[in-house]
Design a protein that fits this description.
Two copies of one chain form a homodimer. The first copy, chain A, is α/β, with parallel strands linked by helices. In chain A, 36% of the residues lie in helices and 26% in strands. In chain A, α5 links the parallel β5 and β6.
Chain lengths: 435, 435
C-alpha cells in the first residue's frame, strides 16, 4: 500500500485539532486506513504555537497546498466562503480530493463544488460540517442507505443549546446566558450566526440533501433564532410537559419538503429534550429502521477533527490501492438528485404554544377562545395564570392542535386586535416527534 | 455499472424484512449503490406467505445459494451456529461476500470466518448483528476511525430492556414482566439468551473487537442476567438518583480490557438511563470526539433489514465497478489485531449498590458499617428503610465507592456472617459513565 499524503489549509481551532489527532493517533489511523496517512504540507497565514510542524512543509500562501503535486487530499479548514471556495476549486481542478469542515461553503456552494469534483474524478467529503464529531453524514448516506428518510430533527447548534439550557436550568434571561456563552468562548463576539439559526440552517440543508436526495438549497430554509425566548416561556412549557429546544427540522410531506430552523416545544420525555449544554443530537425517522438518534459534541477542536480524520481514512483506504472512492458526496449521483419543492412556511402545519397578556376580567377568555374557534383551530389547553400582585393583566397560555401557519397568523392578528389582549403575542411551534 | 446479485438464505423475521426492504426501496437502493441490487436466489426450507418470490429462484437446500455462480453476495439469515457456519464457509470459499445478522456466529466463530474471507479475497459484514438497525458497527469502524476508543457501554438487548422498563414503570415483578414480553413476542419461550445476557455478550464482544482492535473472545465475557432484579431494587435505586439497566460494558484500562454484561445502576439524568422499552443505545467514549451515543430499534424485521441492506449497498458500490471493498470486517487487518488481556471480573473496580435485610435493633448498623471499613471500602450512602408492619427486620441499602470486586465479595461474606443480617445480599454494580 502506498502512503496517502494530506495537506491542511488553516491552523485555527479545527486545523490544530486535526494536526494533533493525525499526529497522536497515527498508529491507529494507519491500521484503519491500511496505509500511512502523512501530513506533508500546511497552508496557514500564521503559525499556531500549539502545532510544531517539525519537518512538514509550511506555506503562507494556502494555494501552494492546492498546487502541491505531492498532496492527495486537501483539508480545507480556513472557514468563510470566498477564499475557501477558490481554494477548494483549485484543489479539485488539480485532481485532489477535498475534506472540509465548512458548513457554509457546502450549504451555499455545494452543488457546484460537487459537480466540479465529479468532472475531475475526485470527491468532496464534509462529515465535520454537520454536528461536529457525530458521524451523522455517514449514518444518513451509508448506515441508513436502505431507508426512505421521512424526517429528521436536530439540535445542531451547540451555542444555542447551551444558552437555552442555561435559561432552562437557572432561569437566566437570554442576554445573560448569551454573555456567559461568549465568556466561555462558545459564542462569537457577533453571535448572529449561532443565535439567529444561520449556522443550524447550513447544517440542516446538508442533512436534508443527503436524506432526501435533493440539491443543497440554503436560501429556501425558514430560519428563526432564539433571542425572543424568555425564561417564562421555558417555565410554562415545562408545566405543560415540554422543553424548548432550537431545532432544525426537515420533513418529506406529500406537498414537498419542509426545511425550517426555529425554537420548538418538544415533549419532555423524549431523548432530544434531554440533550443539554453544547451537545448536539439528530433524530432521524427511516422507513425501515424507524427512529434512530445520534448524539455527541457538535463543536470543539478535537471532536470536529475526529470527523475530518474519519473522512480522510475513508478516502485513504481506496487511494492507497489506487481505487476510486465510490461513496458520493450526497450519497447519490447527480442523475438521482431530484428538485423537490420546498414548502413555504405559511403552509406548514404545526401545533403551537402561544403566550399573551390579557385583562383579568370576565369575558376576555371567552373572546380569546372564540378567535380560535372562528379560525377553526382546536385548542389542546388554555391556561390563565394567576396575576402578579397589583397587576390587572394575566398571562394566558394556549396550546393549539396542528394548524396551518397562515391560519395561525390570522388568529394572532385577531387576538392582538382584541381590547382585552395587550402587547405582542409570543408563539412557538410544537413538534411531537412521533410521526 | 453492472448489477449486483444477492442471495438470501433464511426467510424468517429478518429474511422476510430484508426481502421487503430490497423490493420496496429498490429505487433508492439502486441510487445509493449506484447499481441495481437484484435478489436472484432465495434459500429457505419453507415458504414464507409474506414473501412472494415471483420469478426469483428458490432452493430448499440453502447450500444451493452458496454454489450459485450468479450470486455475488450471500445474505445469511438462518441463525444458529452450525448450519450457518457451514453455509458462510461455503459461500466464502466460492468467492462470495457474506452479509449476516448472526451475532452468535460472529462472536463465536468470527476470527476464523474473517480469516477465511481474507484468504478468498472477499469480506464478511455484520452491521445487523449488533443493535439491530443502529449503524453502530459503521460508527465504530469508520465514523470514529480517528479515535482511540476508551470505553463503550450499551443497552443491547431489547427484551431485557423491555422487562426492566415494565418493572420500573409499573412496579411489576421480573416473572410478570417476562411473561408479558413473551406474550408480545419480544421474548422466546426459552428466554435464557436474552435474560441471562448471552445475546448481549455476543454483541458486546463484536463491538469490543472493532473498538479496541482485538480478536473476538466470546468465552472471556463475564455475563450476569436480570432475573434476580426486584422492583424494590429499582425503587431504591431511583431514590438514590439511579436507573437500573442491563448493560454491556467494554473498557480499556492499564491492566487490560474489561468485558462484562450485567445489571447496572446508572445516573438518572444520563440519556442512557432514559432509553426505554425494546430500544437499544450504545454510548462510546473516543479520545478525540469524547462521548457519542447511538440509539434506535435493536430488533424487528425491517429495523434489522435496514442494517443488512446498508451492508449490501456498501459492498455493491465497489462490486458494481469491479473494485474490492476496502473496509475490513473488524476495521483493521489481521496484522493490526492485538491479543489484549481480558481482566478477570474479580479484579474489576466498580462502585456497588447493596441491599440486605437486617434486624432492627441497636448495634446492627454499626456492625454493618464496620465490615466496610475493615475491608477498606468507603461508603457513599447507608440507608435503613422503615420496617414493614409487624416486621422486626428492615431493608438496608448501601452505596459504596469504587472497590475491587474480590474485596467487595469478601465484605459480602462477612456481612452474611453477621448475626443481625439475614438471607442473601443483593448486589448490583454502578457505572457513573463519566470517565
Amino acid at each position: 500500500m502506498k502512503p496517502v499524503n494530506v495537506g491542511i489549509c488553516g491552523l485555527g481551532t479545527v486545523g490544530s485539532g486535526t494536526f494533533k489527532v493525525l499526529r497522536d493517533n497515527a498508529d491507529i489511523i494507519e491500521a484503519r486506513a491500511q496505509s500511512a496517512v502523512n501530513l506533508v504540507h500546511i497552508g496557514s497565514r500564521r503559525d499556531n504555537p500549539g502545532c510544531d510542524p517539525g519537518g512538514i512543509r509550511v506555506s503562507r500562501d494556502i494555494f501552494e497546498v492546492a498546487r502541491d503535486p505531492e498532496v492527495d487530499i486537501l483539508i480545507e479548514l480556513i472557514g468563510g466562503t470566498t477564499d475557501a471556495k477558490h481554494l477548494v476549486e483549485a484543489a479539485l481542478r488539480s485532481g485532489k480530493h477535498v475534506v472540509t469542515a465548512n458548513k457554509a461553503l457546502i450549504a451555499e456552494y455545494g452543488n457546484e463544488l460537487i459537480a466540479l469534483a465529479a468532472q475531475h474524478n475526485v470527491t468532496v467529503r464534509f462529515e465535520a460540517a454537520v454536528a461536529g464529531g457525530i458521524p451523522i453524514i455517514k449514518a444518513l448516506r451509508e448506515g441508513l442507505a436502505g431507508n426512505r428518510i421521512q424526517w429528521l430533527v436536530g439540535i445542531i447548534n451547540g451555542t444555542g443549546n447551551f444558552i437555552l439550557t442555561e435559561m432552562s436550568e437557572k432561569g437566566k434571561q437570554f442576554s445573560v446566558a448569551l454573555a456567559e456563552a461568549q465568556a466561555l468562548g462558545y459564542a462569537e463576539a457577533d453571535p448572529t450566526f449561532d443565535v439567529e439559526g444561520i449556522d443550524a440552517a447550513h447544517k440542516l440543508v446538508i442533512m436534508a440533501s443527503i436524506a432526501f436526495g435533493m440539491p443543497l438549497q440554503f436560501s429556501q430554509v425558514y430560519t428563526e433564532g432564539i433571542s425572543r425566548i424568555t425564561p417564562q416561556d421555558i417555565d410554562y412549557a415545562r408545566e405543560l410537559g415540554y422543553q424548548i429546544k432550537h431545532l432544525g427540522v426537515a420533513k418529506q410531506t406529500d406537498g414537498g419538503v419542509e426545511l425550517r430552523v426555529h425554537p420548538t416545544l418538544i415533549p419532555q420525555q423524549r431523548l432530544l429534550a434531554n440533550v443539554c449544554g453544547v451537545m448536539n443530537a439528530v433524530l432521524v425517522e427511516g422507513s425501515a429502521v424507524g427512529p434512530t438518534l445520534y448524539y455527541g459534541a457538535g463543536a470543539g477542536a478535537e471532536a470536529t477533527a475526529s470527523a475530518v480524520v474519519a473522512d480522510i481514512v475513508d478516502l485513504a483506504r481506496d487511494l492507497a490501492v489506487d481505487q476510486i472512492p465510490q461513496v458520493l458526496p450526497l450519497g447519490v449521483g447527480a442523475d438521482a438528485i431530484k428538485e423537490l419543492p420546498v414548502i413555504a412556511i405559511e403552509n406548514v402545519r404545526n401545533p403551537w404554544y402561544l403566550r399573551m397578556e390579557a385583562e383579568d376580567r370576565p369575558g376576555v377568555m371567552s373572546q380569546v377562545a372564540s378567535v380560535f374557534s372562528d379560525n377553526e383551530i382546536s385548542i389542546e389547553a388554555l391556561i390563565q395564570k394567576a396575576p402578579a400582585q397589583d397587576e390587572t393583566r394575566v398571562p394566558v397560555i394556549v396550546l393549539t392542535n396542528a394548524t396551518q401557519e397562515c391560519n395561525l397568523q390570522k388568529a394572532l392578528r385577531s387576538l392582538e386586535a382584541l381590547d382585552g389582549v395587550t402587547g405582542e403575542i409570543a408563539g412557538i411551534r410544537v413538534e411531537t416527534l412521533d410521526g
